[in-house]
Amino acid sequence: MFGLTGWSREDIADPYPVYRRCREAASVHKGQSGAFYVFSYDEVSQVLSSRSFGREVPVPAEGRALRAIVENWLVFMDPPRHTELRSQLAKEFSPAVVAGLRPRITQIAHELLARLNGQREADLVEGFAAPLPILVISELLGLPAEHHAWLRATAMALQEGSSSRRSSAGQARAEAAAQEFAAYFRELVRLRRGEDRGDLLTILVRARDNGVPLSVDAIVGTCVHLLTAGHETTTNSLTKAVLALRAHPGVLDDLRESPELTRAAVEELLRYDPPVQAVTRWSRQDLRLGGHEVPTGSRVVALLGSANRDPARFPHPDVLDVHRRADRHLGFGLGIHYCLGAALARAEIEIGLRALLDGVPALGHGDHQVDYADDMVFHGPSRLVLDLSGTK
Ligand code: HEM
Fold first, then answer.
1. Atom of ligand 1 nearest to the CA of 75
2. 125 pLDDT more than 90
3. What are the angstrom distances between the C-alpha of 222 and each of 83, 227, 229, 334?
């Protein structure tokens, strides 16, 4: 019986054989809890693009501070609230705005790389893949760089409370993190009222002052959302990209010799092993899906990781092929909730990966130790220690 909890360490590290077995048996499975799990590309696309499915805030009522933040997350809103907020934010994450950020992202990547160089071994999560996106999103929001370690730790504690694996201790930590974030961002909103810093936080405060219906809670929730959505996913993409390239040294060599392939490689890596493995929806009406009757109010879990390996959409899906057209992958979702930060994420991964390929001679060889976080939704290594002493 399929579910998102109770996976072995081996299956967490490589869930694709599990998905393949499920997908070959049926495109949709009903789990013990009554939830429906969707494995095929076509049906995952249908769930994500149909108005028959909506969102719900995944936080119990007792987590008051956490709920106050998470109910203001775009990703858990339905239209028309979703449409209104998304239109306020979309222009700040457009490809044109992101193009202007590339020099700064490159500078941050090279500063981080300089700190790695000279070390015999390093944890790529702590030393590179985590700080890169958190520094970028903090700067966009206008948060001081020296807060980044606290921002990351607090964002991760908060994420625990809205994850599929929440425990009561995790929930308490998430509630405490939500209270800290609320106090922190409320104070920044107050300061931005008097001072235009040209950052995203100022833009949100100004929009409110100019009559856009954005409550202070909505601004606080949006800031926390951008911080959480914008860092762990990108961190995991970078470390999973490195792991995939280490397992495919020929592809790694191709990328070293032909840097112009990097952009296409990023798409293929996001198809091959996406950092968000699953997204949840709730049926808004009785319907049929993959041969099942799905009653109103059912939980439906769309497995992006499985859809991206569906041979009906991607021939030879288990092959990492940077020359394939992978751009219809579902790693960023689909439909109205398609990742707002996709252009930014693509730029960060491309620039980060390029910096590693060019600046870490031992990237593709020597030993590594990897531990995966125990999470089948936000999926990736919590630690990836590389031996950097080789010079090949
Ligand atoms: C939504 C993946 C990076 C902000 C999503 C969704 C996915 C996703 C799958 C859809 C969720 C759903 O349908 O339930 C990723 C991946 C990333 C990444 C794989 C990195 C490789 C970012 C970044 C930001 C961001 C850098 C912003 C700074 C958002 C927001 C949403 C979202 C705000 C909600 C959009 C909406 O509901 O309209 N992301 N994301 N993400 N992402 Fe990303």
1. 37
2. yes
3. 14, 8, 10, 20
* Whether the CB of 74 sits within 6 Å of ligand 1: yes
Asked if 44 and 301 count as a contact pair (C-beta separation under 8 A), the reply is no
392 C-alpha to ligand 1 centroid (Å):
36
Chain centre to alpha carbon of residue 160: 14
**Are 38 and 303 a contacting pair, CB within 8 Å?**
yes
Residue 341 near ligand 1, beta carbon < 6 Å = yes
Supply the residue whose CA is at minimum distance from atom 7 of ligand 1.
332
**Residue 194: its pLDDT value, please?**
83
Nearest ligand 1 atom, CA 279: 14
> Does 164 have pLDDT greater than 80?
no
Pocket test for ligand 1, best of 89, 94, 332, 375 (most atoms within 8 A of CB): 332
At residue 232, does pLDDT exceed 80? yes
Total Cβ atoms within 10 A of residue 81: 15
